[in-house]
Amino acid sequence: LTATRLTPVTTSLSPNMSGEFPNIQSKHSLVAKHVTKEKWDKLKAIETKTCGFTLAKAIACAVQFDNQHCGIYAGDWDSYKDFAIVFDPLIQEYHGISADAKHTSDMDPSKVKGNINPEIPVHSTRIRVGRNIDGFGLSPGITKQQRIDIEKLMSSALSKLTGDLAGTYYPLTGMDEAVRQKLVDDHFLFMSGDRNLAVAGMERDWPEGRGIFHNDAKTFLLWVNEEDQTRIISMQQGGDVKGVFERLSRGIKAVGDSVKAESGKEFALDPRYGYIHSCPTNLGTGMRASVHVDLPGWTKEGVDKLKARCEELAVQPRGTRGESGGQTGHTYDISNKHRLGYSEVQLVQVMIDGVNTLWKEDLELQKKHGM
User: Fold this and answer.
1) Is the pLDDT score of 366 beyond 80?
2) In the annotation, is 279 catalytic?
3) Catalytic: which of 50, 54, 128, 147?
4) Considering 131, 247, 288, 339, which one is annotated as catalytic?
5) Mean pLDDT, to the nearest integer, of 233-240?
6) Which of 195, 323, 357, 361 is catalytic?
7) What is the mean pLDDT of the chain?
8) Among residues 264, 291, 282, which one has the least CA distance to residue 348?
9) What is the pLDDT confidence band of residue 320, given thresholds at 50, 70 and 90?
10) Closest Cα partner for 367 from 303, 317, 296, 293?
11) Does residue 364 carry a catalytic annotation?
């Protein structure tokens, strides 16, 4: 688990106040396709109620950079509604859903069938989701006060967790150097300095209102006020995906219940788009379930062939920087590809089945290549 973001980026971001149609530098982005002059003229003067977000702020990344695939962020739940003529078709295209699709969440670990086979060389398992609390802005648009209020609410709600979920909240502001170094060594710390997040408005007032929580065993973590108000993470060594999902499910419920008891508010959940996230690519489950696994046979066969096979299995391979055992050159991060239109249980199942299949095939490939 690594989170790299090192130095603060200062950007002179003045979202288009003149109202003229912006020059979208990411010509092949979804923004370039879905933000037409006609739609721009309809929406450019709108400021959302929760935090005064505008379409100009939403598409800042697509305007400033030429490398965006999506290129748009929401500044609050209202953004998805107020700018729906842009967001709806863009989300449908990105996630491959129909205009009338509904999203159903299912966090019941007892419905997951089987697990990753114990003989498979899985180093570690990590499942993360994002959750945002209704009534506060999302990271690109959140006001300074709202961010502080979220931190206060989360810090208090997290202090009430019990059993194996109980732990400590570490605010980034005024963090002790020894604590900081420990969090860096554990790969838990998120940093500033991601240019996309900066231009999207997510690093305003850095590092105020941000922090990290982890339980004593370091298997349950929360990031507060990073790309989402909360990123909830369950992880551990080895390949017990079902166990990691079970802890995540319990943890999300415990945090949600605690937030509700504290503030009367719930996580923002939309009937069409599932759990609301600042990045539309994360809508739905907002879930990325991943393992680090050795695939020497596939590595020998060729990374392009592995990518193509993963596509068929609805999983995504990424290279890894290696766990503490050093980098062998054949360890991959394999995760579910989809977010919206499938339940959490379905996506965890797809990842488990995908890894089991890849390993079975890996053994054949090892034979084929005389390994």
Assistant:
1) yes
2) yes
3) 128
4) 288
5) 97
6) 323
7) 93
8) 291
9) confident
10) 296
11) no
Contact assessment for residue 226 and residue 139, using Cβ atoms and an 8 Å cutoff: yes
The residue annotated as part of the active site, out of 230, 279, 331, 339, is 279
Label the pairing between strands 274-275 and 269-270. antiparallel
What is the number of other CB atoms lying within 10 angstroms of the CB of residue 188? 20
Kindly give, in sequence order, each residue whose CB lies less than 8 Å from that of residue 38, ignoring residues fewer than 6 positions away: none
Out of 143, 204, 246, 281, which one is annotated catalytic? 281
The pLDDT-based confidence of 192 (bands split at 50, 70, 90) is: confident
Note if 281 is an active site residue: yes
Cβ 283 vs Cβ 340: under 8 Å: yes
- Nearest CA-CA partner of 59 in 200, 197, 229: 200
Distance CA 230, CA 324 (A): 27
Q: Which pLDDT score is estimated for 112?
A: 98
In DSSP notation, 166-216 reads: -EEEEESTT--HHHHHHHHHTT----S--HHHHHTTTTTTTTTT-EEEEET
Annotation says 309 is catalytic: no
Distances (CA, A) of 57 to 10, 62, 163, 198, 201: 16, 10, 42, 12, 8
Instruction: Name the active-site residue from 36, 38, 311, 318.
Output: 318
pLDDT digits (tens, 9 = 90+) for 288-314: 999 999 999 999 999 999 999 999 999
Cis peptide before 207 (omega within 30 of 0): yes
Beta bridge partners of 223: 212, 231
216: left (phi over 0), alpha (psi -120 to 50) or beta: alpha
Out of 126, 131, 231, 339, pick the active-site residue.
231
pTM of the model: 0.91
128 catalytic residue (yes or no): yes
pLDDT score of 182 more than 70 = yes
Extract the tokens encoding 363: 């053994």
Active-site annotation holder among 151, 226, 227, 344? 227
Q: Please work out, in degrees rounded to the nearest 5, the angle formed at the alpha carbon of residue 206 by the alpha carbons of 204 and 207.
A: 150
Query: What is the per-residue pLDDT across 119-163, written as a single tens digit (0 to 9) for each?
Result: 999 999 999 999 999 999 999 999 999 999 999 999 999 999 999
231 is catalytic: yes
Kindly report the three-state secondary structure assignment for every residue of 33-96: HHCCHHHHHHHCCCCCCCCCCCHHHHCHHHHHCCCCCCCCCCCCHHHHHHCHHHHHHHHHHHHC
